[in-house]
Design a protein that fits this description.
The chain is α+β, with helices and mostly antiparallel strands and 205 residues long. The protein has helices spanning 7-20, 63-67, 96-102; strands spanning 26-27, 48-53, 56-62, 72-79, 84-95, 112-117, 122-126, 136-141, 144-145, 155-157, 170-176. It has 3 helices and 11 strands, in the order H-E-E-E-H-E-E-H-E-E-E-E-E-E. The two termini are 33 Å apart. Molybdenum atom binds next to loops.
């Protein structure tokens, strides 16, 4: 647990904080909003999540169907490539494992996937970065429905990669044969974006 009260507790927390911060990051209590373009407002009765393989549809969920999938709570640190990190953010949603399970996908058909969002944002992902409890589609933050500014009604959450990978207003996950770059990745950012390896820009190791 994280101790934030009292002088001794504060000093101990500071040392712990540094160890929890990836290289080049600073800690903020704020929750900045970063969007390339306007905030999207999608009514729930028009919301659907689609899982695709190439051109073909594997599965879709309406909002009601999606809400009926197993729900998982996750408390985690998040790290933006613009150098802010935020500790102990609390999310609720459906893990990608449970989404694949609901689609009867015992074995993912490829190793790559593109996330597509309302508004046109995309990000490329390795399937291995999405499974085994690493990622979810989050619908709640801090016990409340996710605000539109933070990607509500539903966003991807892969906290172990830089936050640009956590696509807001996600609507479609599409398996692909190769790791084609998404929105930021085709504008000079790293294809994977591991904050602990400081994979910020194209060409970083
Ligand atoms: N659809 C969409 N998702 C997005 C973005 C975006 O512009 N559009 N920005 C990304 C970036 S760069 C970051 S740092 C986070 C910011 O999430 P937040 O606004 O909830 O902090 O969302 C990511 N997901
Ligand atoms: Mo970002």
């Amino acid at each position: 647990m994280h101790v934030t009260r009292g002088f001794k507790g504060k000093r101990r927390t500071d040392a712990t904080d540094r160890a929890r911060l990836p290289p080049g990051q600073y800690l903020t209590p704020e929750f900045p909003v970063l969007t390339a373009g306007p905030t999207i407002h999608t009514p729930l009765d028009r919301w659907k999540l689609a899982l695709q393989n190439g051109g073909s549809l594997v599965a879709t969920w309406t909002w009601a169907e999606f809400e009926a999938l197993p729900q998982t709570d996750l408390q985690t640190d998040i790290h933006c490539v613009t150098q802010w990190s935020k500790f102990d953010t609390r999310w609720r949603g459906v893990t990608i494992d449970d989404i694949f399970r609901a689609a009867d996908l015992a074995v993912p058909p490829t190793g790559y996937l593109m996330a597509h969002c309302d508004g046109g944002y995309t990000t490329n992902l390795l399937v291995s970065d999405l499974i085994d409890g690493r990622a979810m589609i989050a619908t709640h933050y801090d016990g409340l429905p996710l605000l539109p500014s933070h990607g509500g009604p539903a966003r991807l959450l892969l906290p172990h990669l830089y936050f640009w990978k956590s696509a807001k207003w996600v609507r479609r996950l599409a398996f692909r044969d190769k790791d084609d770059p998404g929105f930021w990745e085709s504008r000079g950012y790293h294809l994977r974006g591991d904050p602990w390896r400081e994979q910020r820009y194209h060409g970083d190791p």
